[in-house]
Amino acid sequence: MKTLLKNIRIMYPNLAYPRDFDGNKMFCYSASFLLAKGDENYNLIHDAIKSVADEAWGNKANENLRNAKTNNRICIKDGVGDFEGQYILRSGTKKETPPRQPRRPLIMGRHPKVQIQDGEIESLIYGGCYVNAMVRPWAHEYAGSKQINCDLLAVQFVGHGEAFTSSAVASADEFPVVPDDDDEEVFF
Questions:
Q1: Sequence spans of domains, the chain
Q2: Is 149:138 a contact under the CB 8 Å cutoff?
Q3: Is the separation of the CB atoms in 12 and 31 below 8 Å?
Q4: In this predicted structure, which of 15-19, 76-80, 152-156, 178-182 has the lowest mean pLDDT?
Q5: What CATH number matches the domain at 3-164, 2.40.50.140, 3.40.47.10, 2.60.120.280, 1.10.443.10?
Q6: Rounded to the nearest 5 degrees, what angle is found at the Cα of 68, between the Cα atoms of 63 and 69?
Q7: How far is CA 32 from CA 13, 138, 185, in A?
Q8: pTM score, whole prediction
Q9: Could you read off the pLDDT of 51-91 as tens digits, one per residue?
Q10: β-strands 86-92, 106-108: how paired?
C-alpha cells in the first residue's frame, strides 16, 4: 500500500549511490524518517502497516506484528537518545548484487517535474531537512520469521531544517605553518 508522508524530516539519506550496509555485497538506496507519535504521518504509516499485516496474516496479524516488534523485524522503531518519544521509519530499495544495480528512488525538487541530478542529491537532501516521501510497507516471511519492511519509492525536497550532524569544514587558519627542513628525509 503506497503511502505519502508529507513534510517529514529525513534521517540517514543514502540516495546518491547504493551502499552495502551489511557487508554481504547486497547494495541498496535507503532513508529513515522521523515520526511523532499521533501525528498525521505516524497515523498514515501505522494504518498502512496494519493493513498489509491484515492482508498477509488475517486473524494472526496482531500477534505477528507484536512478535515482529519484539524481534526487531518491523520497519518502524522507537527512537532513542535525542529521538526518544518519537519513531523512526526505515525504508529502502530492493537489494541487488553487482553487476545488477538497485533501482534508485525518484528524487525530486519542490516541483515534482524537477528531478534532482546525481551531483546535487547529497547537497540538497541531508539528514534533518524536510521532505515528502512515498513509501510502501509490505509483509513477508524470512527464515520462519514474519516481518514488515518498507520500500522507498520517492523523495521530494520540501525545505531546509536543522542538520542532525555537523558538516563543518576545518579552516586553513586553524593549522600551523610547517617550516621546510632540507635536512629531513621526506616520505611524501
A1: 3-164
A2: yes
A3: yes
A4: 178-182
A5: 2.40.50.140
A6: 100
A7: 7, 16, 50
A8: 0.84
A9: 999 999 999 999 999 999 999 999 999 999 999 999 999 99
A10: unpaired
